[in-house]
Amino acid sequence: MTEHIQIERQGAVQIIRMNRPDKKNAITRAMYAAMASALKEADADAELRVSVFMGVPGAFSSGNDLADFLAVAQGGEHGREVFDFLMALATAAKPVLAGVDGIAVGIGTTIQLHCDLTFATPRSVFRTPFVDLGLVPEAGSSLLGPAILGRQQAFALLGLGEGFSAEKAKATGLIYEVVDEDHLEGAVLAAAREIAAKPPEALKIARDLMRGDRSELVARIKEEGAHFAARLKSEEARAAFLAFMSRKKAG
Fold first, then answer.
1. Cα separation of 207 and 116, whole Å?
2. Residue 135 · residue 159 · CB < 8 Å
């Protein structure tokens, strides 16, 4: 589907690796589609117990590819790939983990709100500049953020666009643990293997009890999505995208 998503299987663990280092793992529509497919396949495969998201050294993800956003802002179609991925993530029946090194922007941060465990390196920074781009929070973050972080920390992250260090992300509950760069992948995969070895039915019940009814989350993702799609075509967003692209060219 795309060379920028590498799917690897290690026993009962599925690794979904974003691999677009030249663009700091900016996520394209094809990448979203590949990741959604991987999550759905994991849920359908009895031999797979855990999915793990990984990036590349220095970049988990710089967020959505802004060229895709700009295309929509200039009259293009807003495809279903992002929505399909968010639905697969929000409704995943099996545990999802992540290993973050470096930048985690936009969806790179909001993915963590859905993960059961996230490990990050000390140099990681979590940031969601949605409002700065004339957009709104996505991935159910307007619901999950206040529930997990508390309302004011959620506003700092999602409204103010403050960058959270790995230590602050851990302190606020956005991530589970901070580990050295050299140990990141080993730590994530060790946790994934430990989870995969648990009695699967008991683990599923325990996880479902902790996560609760996801119908409200699904409804919030749809509500956010409607606002997001409208904002993409707004003058605020169009001006922000063009300004950002101009700065990139100048740099």
1. 9
2. no
Whether the CB-CB separation of 16 and 35 falls below 8 Å is answered with yes
Q: Read off the pLDDT of residues 124-170 as tens digits, 9 standing for 90 and up.
A: 999 999 999 999 999 999 999 999 999 999 999 999 999 999 999 99
Please state whether 161 falls in left (phi above 0), alpha (psi between -120 and 50) or beta.
left
* 217-241 residues labelled b (16+ CB within 10 A) or e (exposed): beebbeebbeebeebbeeeebbebb
Q: Are 207 and 116 in contact (CB under 8 A)?
A: yes
Indicate the residue type of 227. H
Helices (H), 184-234: 184-196, 200-211, 215-232
| Model confidence pLDDT, tens digit, residues 213-241 | 999 999 999 999 999 999 988 999 888 88
62 and 31 Cβ atoms separated by less than 8 Å: no
Cα separation, 179 vs 171, whole angstroms: 14
